[in-house]
Amino acid sequence: MEFDDNTVRVLPRSGASAHKIQELLDEAVIDPDTKPSNIKSVVLHVGASDITNNREDSESVIADFTVAITGVKQCFPEATIYVSDILPRKGKGASIQKCNATAKSVNSFLQKYCKRYNYLVYINNDTSFMLNDTVSAMF
């Protein structure tokens, strides 16, 4: 997937979570340079903070993701939404293992969910971070 750098707008928020996506959407729509009908692609990359901030049950993270996807589609009805999977955490501790297990469960759901709608594209990052089912790259 390639994007023209002149048409890309990034709204990064370290520690942001799926259930706060509406705040980012409001910010994007308020921007005078952003006309919702002109937005053709949105990349949604959230999730790690949702899990590491004491939200380890996949059901609530999945619920937040589906609400976030719906919110993006409502704000940008012409857009294709690229849903990036939750990146794994590196480490061997119990909390890291639980985080990765939850991420794997959520990612499995997201992959299936994206197949249901022609405006959703799932981005699988496993090839960039995993080697033989082990996190090989640290972020």
Which tags fit this structure?
about 140 residues, alpha/beta, 3-stranded parallel sheet, about 40% helix, globular
Description:
The protein is α/β, with parallel strands linked by helices and 139 residues long. Helix content is 42%, strand content 12%. The strands form two sheets. Strands 1-2-3 form a three-stranded parallel sheet. It has a two-stranded antiparallel sheet with strand order 4-5. β4 and β5 form a beta hairpin. α1 packs parallel to α3 and α3 crosses α4. The longest helix has 22 residues. The protein is globular, with a radius of gyration of 15 Å. The two termini are 22 Å apart. The model has no long low-confidence stretch (mean pLDDT 76).
Share in helix: 40-55%
Point out poorly predicted stretches.
Answer: none
Biggest sheet strand line-up: 1-2-3
SS-based class: alpha/beta
Radius of gyration: 15 Å
Largest sheet: 3 strands, parallel
User: How far is it from the N-terminal to the C-terminal residue, by CA?
Assistant: 22 Å
Number of H/I helices:
5
The backbone outline, from C-alpha atoms, is globular
- Number of DSSP strand runs: 5
The overall pLDDT, averaged over residues, is 76
